[in-house]
Amino acid sequence: MGLLLTEDEKMLQESAAGFFADKAPVSQIRALRDDRDATGYSKELWLEMSEMGFTGVLVDAENGGFDMGFMAAGLIAEQMGKNLSASPFLSSSVLAATALKMAGDKQAAKLLPEIVSGKMVMALAVDEGGKHNPDAIQMTASPSGNGFKLNGKKSMVVDGHMADQIIVVAQTDDGLTLFVVPTDAKGLDTERTIMVDSRNAARMVFEDVEVTGEQVLGEVGKGADILNTVLNAGRAVLAAEMLGAASQVFQTTNDYLKERKQFGKIIGEFQALQHRMAHLYCELELARTSVLTALTALDKNPKSAGPFVSMAKAKLGSVAKLAALESVQLHGGMGMTDELDIGLYLKRIRVAQELLGDADYHIAQITK
User: Fold this and answer.
1) Distance of alpha carbon 191 from alpha carbon 92, whole angstroms
2) Domains observed in the chain
3) Whole-angstrom Cα distance, residue 319 to residue 243?
4) Which mean pLDDT values do the consecutive 10-residue runs of the chain (368 residues) have?
5) Residue 250 near residue 281, CB atoms below 8 Å
């Protein structure tokens, strides 16, 4: 993603590369996993990310951010993917920040500076089943006094167990509506779930959770337009993260093939393995172009970026998975052991390809 970047973006890319390699290498996610850390990420790292300005790349200067755009968010996510760095960046600085910024109301003015400072973590509660399907939202928001009562269930709420506030998507009589709900609200039951990649999501059950009209994000019944852009922002940033993970897996495998000997020869000299690596390299370059295109489209016009984002998410879902599986095979038996990091990359890629829609989902969006 070094092509067509501004000088500021290049500086950000270099800064993020050094920061995550030093402060949040793969050893950190191993430690979090082995300790079964209740948070699922380092709070100290999150505050340091705030100090670096990473938490505010999608927030305007008026609210304490830098407003560098989605390309900047993707550059940060790519470096996080290379190091498997765990943080609430996707949930809070991308999904929640985009929703608040688009709404542009009193809640945005109150909450965006808190996100930038790293003092508040927010999450998005949209999906309700085993698969991503924002068109099948059944949670209801029924009129009650000067507000609403929320009833229903949400699944795969990334970082939901540690969030201070949740942006909840529900059906009202007028259409989809977004609400900002504190996680300690009466009637809200939250269950932490540890995903296969050792990150955390939450299952949430809402039983007559009362919200006021002031907790509506944007306008009643007009949440679909905000949600569409929010989801596309998350999908593009996830694609960038998978690109980083896949690129690192490729580099690790390529280095191994140059060192490992079999039958008295460096195995990287075997033509069959060269063909497989060449194919993977070409796929990664195509994937890189699709991510760059999606992030550029979001920065130019979020409303028309959908097809480019779906293309990137679908492409990275398949290419990143291919990179990880090829790495496991080319490392032989060792590739299956916990001694190597490959399995950690494979697990993160598996989760990321499912979040906010897998390849099948996004291919279907493109062909509608």
Assistant:
1) 19
2) 7-121 (1.10.540.10), 124-221 (2.40.110.10), 224-366 (1.20.140.10)
3) 9
4) 76 97 96 90 96 97 95 98 98 98 91 96 96 96 96 97 97 97 98 91 97 96 96 98 97 84 69 87 96 97 96 97 91 79 95 96 91
5) yes
